[in-house]
Amino acid sequence: MWRERALIILVFLLHLIHGEDACPSSSCGKISNISYPFRLKGDAKGCGLTGYELSCKNNIALFSLYSGTFHVQAINYNNFTIRVVDPGLQQTNCSSLPRYFFSPSNFTNSYQLIPPFHRYYRPKDSSLYQTIHWVDWYYRTEPLVYEHIVFLNCSHRVIGKLKYVDTDGCLNWESKGYIYAIAGDLIAEDFEVGCHVKLVSPTSWRGLDTNTYFYDMMHTALLYGFEHSWIPLACEGRCVDYYNCYFSSSSQTLECYNEEPLKPSWGLYVLVF
Ligand SMILES: *[C@@H]1O[C@H](CO)[C@@H](O)[C@H](O)[C@H]1NC(C)=O
Ligand SMILES: *[C@@H]1O[C@H](CO)[C@@H](O)[C@H](O)[C@H]1NC(C)=O
Ligand SMILES: *[C@@H]1O[C@H](CO)[C@@H](O)[C@H](O)[C@H]1NC(C)=O
Ligand SMILES: *[C@@H]1O[C@H](CO)[C@@H](O)[C@H](O)[C@H]1NC(C)=O
Ligand SMILES: *[C@@H]1O[C@H](CO)[C@@H](O)[C@H](O)[C@H]1NC(C)=O
């Protein structure tokens, strides 16, 4: 009897160490492989983690991040990323806009996922264009969000600033004001009095060239969506010091900075028994 019990505990511990469960994967629409740490609503208890629950609606997998619910585009278990797109965006409709506005407050309390913004902006007064600062986000992984698309409403036509891209008639929120989109960072020299940031949305699309100025391309970038990582979760128990764990883009695996990886040892199990 104690042997069986020990075996069950051992199997359980092995799962904990490897951070996986023995559940079959679930599927929803084009997301055919929903497995640990994710779970699909309705999956058996103990499958995946509750904070990583997807739901399935009209064959679209939905995932809640911060206070938004996003459409899942892809889950990649090799590099620990999930790519999501804002539900407000429609493929063939260049007038469609992201539903969610992103700001630093969205990331300060998120423990389980790396903030996708390697640079995020901190408006002291969100209505004041001049107070925007871009802050570097330091983390030993590749940035997941490469650029942002910033939508601005200006009281006048902006002349001589290439970065201010006309939305080519795609967007005209109200007849008053001029709507512009900017791909990439806002730096001091781009500031234009009379313009207000209306929307900031991230993208992980590497094809975005911030030196060509077409709204079309920005819309494509937004439709690609942005990536999120569960590396902090995957890093648990991997290295002696948790903060030494990082994803190496050259080896495409988790590695420990300045140390040997922790290997699950039998001694641990003996101790537990
Ligand atoms: C699904 O993901 C798991 C990793 O969680 C992997 O072992 C398995 O090969 C994947 N299956 C398919 C069909 O991609
Ligand atoms: C981000 O934070 C802002 C300000 O707190 C909030 O209005 C917005 O809904 C948040 N966005 C998401 C996607 O959670
Ligand atoms: C993760 O892998 C997917 C599929 O290969 C790729 O498209 C994506 O860019 C990768 N993300 C990162 C952060 O490496
Ligand atoms: C395109 O998107 C805009 C803004 O969301 C919406 O008002 C309009 O009805 C959409 N057009 C179509 C054809 O769906
Ligand atoms: C854009 O700005 C104009 C005046 O500068 C204002 O009347 C209008 O309501 C603004 N539109 C939006 C969508 O903020």
Automatic annotation (TrEMBL):
Lineage: superkingdom: Eukaryota
Location in or out of the cell: Membrane
Entry's Gene Ontology cellular component terms: membrane
Signal peptide: 1-22
Alphabetized UniProt keyword annotations: Signal
A Pfam entry, by short name: GUB_WAK_bind
Predominant location category: membrane
Protein name, UniProt field: Wall-associated receptor kinase galacturonan-binding domain-containing protein
Naturally occurring in which organism (per UniProt): Phaseolus vulgaris
